[in-house]
Structure to design on (584 residues):
C-alpha cells in the first residue's frame, strides 16, 4: 500500500471511529441526562417529556425540596467528616507503615507485606458480622470514628500496598545520604519522603476516597441514628419499600442530583488526576 | 566496632516495626480479627446474643447449603459473574481500542465513559430502577420506536431481572476498566501498529495478534478485579432490586446481609460469609495462575 493511500485509510477510519464513539457516548450518557434535566423541571413535565427540558417548565423547586428533605447541610457534613477522618487514618498510618516495610527489608517485614497484599481481595462481608459486634462493644456505632475505623481497616492493606510499591521505586541512596548526615528514619520520612509521596497520595485519595464517599454498606450497618446519616444512606431511605410504586419523582431527581453534585464538581476540576490515579493504582495492582 | 553497627541496624529494625504497628493494629483489630472470628464462630452455635456457645462442626454450613434459597443465590452469583466478566471486558477492551484510535476527542470520550464511576451506586441504582419501570423511559422508548411487544417490567420479572441488572452494572463499571485497557494500549509501541498497517494487516488481526497478546497484563488485572468486584458487589443490586422478585436477583454477598440484618440468623450469615470468602480466594488464585500462564505463553 502506498503511503498516500495509507493516510487516506487512516483518516477515514478515524472519522468512522469518531462517529461510532459519539453514538455510543450519547446512548451511555442518556441516563445521566435523564436525571440532570428532570432535576430542573416540574413534576407533570417529568412524566410527559422525560428527556426534554423546556424553559417554560423549568424550576429549582425540586432541588430546594430535596435540600430540605435530605437535611443537606447536616448530611453533607457527616459525609465530609467521615471521608476526612477515614482518609487521614489511611494516609497517615498507611504511608508510615509502608515506609517501615520498605526500609526494613527483612524477611519478617516481607512476610507482613505478603499477608497484607493477600488480604486485598478478601470480601468485606467475611468480617462484617463480628466487626459490627465489636463496634457495638466499643460503643463506636453511630460515630464518625467507628465508620472511619471500619474503612481504615478494610482499605489499609491496599493503601500500604500502593505506598510500599511507590517507596520502593525511590532510590535508596536518598535515605542513606540522609543517614550519613545524621538524619534518623523518622526525620527522613517526615522531611524527605513525605514531599515525594504527593502524587501517590492523590492516587490513594481517588481510589479509596471516592468509594468511601459513595459507600452505602458500612453506613447501613453501623448508623441507625438519622442525624448521623451520610449522603448515600439518606438517598437510600428515600426509596420506597419494595413493591410500593408510588414515587415522588421530583424528590428522587432532585436528591440524586444534589447528592452527586459535590463529587462531580471535584471531578471537573481534577479530571486529569482521576484518570491518572485509576491507572496508577491498577498497574501496580 | 561490629557491636555498634549491629545495634544501629537493630535500632533501625525496631524503628521500622514501630512505624508499622499503628496501621497493623487498625487492620488487625478492625479487619483481620473479625474475619478470623467469623471463621471460628461459623463452626459454633453462637447466635450473636448468648454469651456461651459450643462447637457444632459443619452444622451451620449444612443448614446454609440446604436452605431453600442457596441454590438460587449461588446460581445468581455465578450467572452474574459468567455474563458480566466476559461481556464487560470485551466491551471495555473494544471501547478502549476505539478511544485509542479516536484522536483528540479520545480524552472527552474517556471522561464521559468514566463518569458513572464517580457516582454513588445508590444513585446509579435509583436512576436505573426508574428507567426500568413499566411506565419508565425504556418502555416509553420501545413504544415510540414501534416495539410495543417488548414493553415489560424489567426488574419485576424473573426472566429479565438478571440481564437488566447486568446491563446496569456494566454501564456503571465499563469506564473504569476502559481506563486500565487504555493504559495497557499506551504501552504498545506505535511502530508495531504502523508496520502492521503497511503490511496490510486487517483490524481484526491487529486486535487478536498484536493488541491482545501485548496487553495481556491489563487483561489479567481486569479479569481478577471484575470477578472479585461482581461476587462481592452489594450496594448496586441491593438498592436496584433488593434481591427481588423473591430471591431471583439475590446474590451470595447480599444474602450475608439478609441473614445477618433482615432475618437475624447470625450463624447462617457467618457460614455464608465464610463460603463467600473461600469462593473469592479460590477464584483469585485460579484466575491468577491461569492468566499468568497465558501471559508467559504469549511472550
Amino acid at each position: 500500500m502506498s503511503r498516500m493511500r495509507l493516510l487516506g485509510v487512516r483518516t477515514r477510519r478515524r472519522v468512522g471511529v469518531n462517529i461510532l464513539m459519539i453514538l455510543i457516548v450519547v446512548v451511555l450518557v442518556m441516563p445521566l441526562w435523564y436525571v440532570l434535566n428532570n432535576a430542573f423541571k416540574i413534576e407533570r413535565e417529568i412524566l410527559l417529556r422525560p428527556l426534554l427540558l423546556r424553559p417554560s417548565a423549568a424550576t429549582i423547586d425540586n432541588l430546594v425540596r430535596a435540600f430540605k428533605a435530605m437535611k443537606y447541610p447536616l448530611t453533607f457534613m457527616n459525609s465530609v467528616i467521615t471521608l476526612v477522618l477515614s482518609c487521614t487514618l489511611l494516609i497517615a498510618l498507611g504511608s508510615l507503615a509502608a515506609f517501615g516495610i520498605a526500609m526494613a527489608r527483612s524477611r519478617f517485614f516481607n512476610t507482613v507485606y505478603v499477608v497484607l497484599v493477600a488480604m486485598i481481595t478478601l470480601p468485606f462481608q467475611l468480617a462484617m458480622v463480628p466487626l459490627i459486634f465489636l463496634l457495638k462493644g466499643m460503643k463506636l456505632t453511630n460515630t464518625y470514628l467507628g465508620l472511619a475505623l471500619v474503612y481504615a481497616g478494610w482499605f489499609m492493606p491496599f493503601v500500604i500496598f500502593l505506598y510500599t510499591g511507590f517507596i520502593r521505586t525511590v532510590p535508596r541512596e536518598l535515605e542513606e545520604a540522609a543517614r550519613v548526615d545524621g538524619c534518623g528514619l523518622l526525620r527522613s520520612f517526615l522531611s524527605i519522603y513525605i514531599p515525594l509521596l504527593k502524587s501517590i497520595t492523590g492516587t490513594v485519595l481517588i481510589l479509596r476516597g471516592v468509594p468511601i464517599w459513595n459507600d452505602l454498606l458500612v453506613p447501613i450497618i453501623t448508623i441507625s441514628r438519622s442525624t448521623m446519616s451520610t449522603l448515600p444512606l439518606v438517598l437510600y431511605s428515600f426509596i420506597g419499600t419494595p413493591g410500593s410504586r408510588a414515587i415522588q419523582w421530583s424528590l428522587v431527581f432532585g436528591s440524586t442530583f444534589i447528592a452527586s453534585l459535590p463529587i462531580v464538581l471535584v471531578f471537573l476540576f481534577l479530571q486529569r488526576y482521576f484518570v491518572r490515579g485509576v491507572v496508577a493504582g491498577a498497574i501496580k495492582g | 566496632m561490629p557491636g555498634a553497627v549491629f545495634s544501629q541496624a537493630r535500632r533501625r529494625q525496631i524503628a521500622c516495626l514501630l512505624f508499622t504497628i499503628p496501621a497493623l493494629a487498625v487492620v488487625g483489630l478492625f479487619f483481620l480479627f473479625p474475619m478470623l472470628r467469623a471463621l471460628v464462630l461459623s463452626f459454633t452455635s453462637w447466635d450473636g446474643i448468648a454469651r456461651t456457645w459450643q462447637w457444632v462442626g459443619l452444622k451451620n454450613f449444612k443448614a446454609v447449603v440446604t436452605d431453600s434459597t442457596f441454590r438460587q443465590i449461588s446460581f445468581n452469583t455465578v450467572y452474574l459473574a459468567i455474563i458480566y466478566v466476559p461481556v464487560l471486558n470485551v466491551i471495555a477492551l473494544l471501547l478502549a481500542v476505539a478511544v485509542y484510535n479516536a484522536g483528540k476527542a479520545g480524552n472527552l470520550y474517556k471522561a464521559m465513559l468514566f463518569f458513572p464511576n464517580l457516582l454513588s451506586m445508590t444513585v446509579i441504582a435509583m436512576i436505573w430502577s426508574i428507567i426500568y419501570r413499566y411506565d419508565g423511559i425504556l418502555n416509553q422508548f420501545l413504544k415510540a420506536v414501534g416495539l410495543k411487544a417488548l414493553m415489560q417490567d424489567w426488574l419485576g420479572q424473573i426472566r429479565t431481572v438478571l440481564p437488566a441488572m447486568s446491563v446496569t452494572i456494566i454501564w456503571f463499571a465499563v469506564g473504569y476498566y476502559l481506563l486500565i485497557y487504555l493504559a495497557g494500549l499506551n504501552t504498545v509501541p506505535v511502530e508495531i501498529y504502523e508496520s502492521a498497517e503497511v503490511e496490510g494487516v486487517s483490524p481484526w488481526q491487529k486486535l487478536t495478534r498484536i493488541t491482545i497478546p501485548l496487553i495481556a497484563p491489563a487483561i489479567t488485572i481486569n479479569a481478577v478485579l471484575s470477578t472479585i468486584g461482581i461476587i462481592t458487589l452489594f450496594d448496586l443490586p441491593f438498592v436496584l432490586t433488593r434481591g427481588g422478585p423473591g430471591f431471583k436477583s439475590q446474590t451470595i454477598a447480599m444474602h450475608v446481609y439478609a441473614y445477618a440484618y433482615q432475618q437475624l440468623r447470625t450463624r447462617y450469615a457467618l457460614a455464608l460469609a465464610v463460603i463467600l470468602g473461600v469462593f473469592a480466594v479460590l477464584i483469585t488464585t485460579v484466575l491468577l495462575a491461569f492468566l499468568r500462564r497465558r501471559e508467559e505463553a504469549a511472550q
Notes: Chain A touches chain B through 92 residues (CB under 8 Å).
